[in-house]
Amino acid sequence: MIHVYLDDFRACPPGFVLARNLEECLLLLQEYEVDVLSLDYDLGWGFPNGLEVVRAMISLRAYPKRIFLHTSSDAGRKHMYEMLYQQKPDHVALVNGPVPPELLMELAHPAKE
User: What Pfam family does this protein match (any one) (predicted)?
Assistant: First the structure.
């Protein structure tokens, strides 16, 4: 199981796999079991944004277990949250904000079994 961080600019937190664009994010969602997906909205001038990623996820029915929205775009966060809230399966957890620091720490340093 992997954790995916979609962002065109920010550094990827430890414990996550970085996706810089829509195509990389969708490939990871389709090829791997994804626990945490953290989404940005603005993905570079002229490139598909986070809302387009959400639309593609819904169309493909490719969902992670948990979705967080780390974008600094208030309007983008609102649109992504509303669309996901209406369309996601019940088993998918949706948080209207970034991954909390405690969870970031847990994902960066998973417990050894």
Answer: cREC_REC
* C-alpha atoms less than 13 angstroms from C-alpha of 67 in its C-beta half-sphere: 30
Rounded Cα–Cα distance for residues 21 and 91 (Å)? 25
* Residue 109: partners with Cβ closer than 8 Å, 6 or more residues away: 14, 15
pLDDT digits (tens, 9 = 90+) for 26-45: 999 999 999 999 999 999 99
Residue 72, in any domain of the structure: yes
CA–CA separation, 55 and 48 (whole Å) = 11
Q: Where does residue 31 rank: exposed (0-12), middle (13-18), buried (19+ CB within 10 A)? A: exposed
CATH of the domain at 39: 3.40.50.2300
pTM score over 0.90: yes
Place of tokens 């979705």: 67
Question: Taking Cα atoms as reference points, which of 108, 110, 103 lies closest to residue 15?
Answer: 108
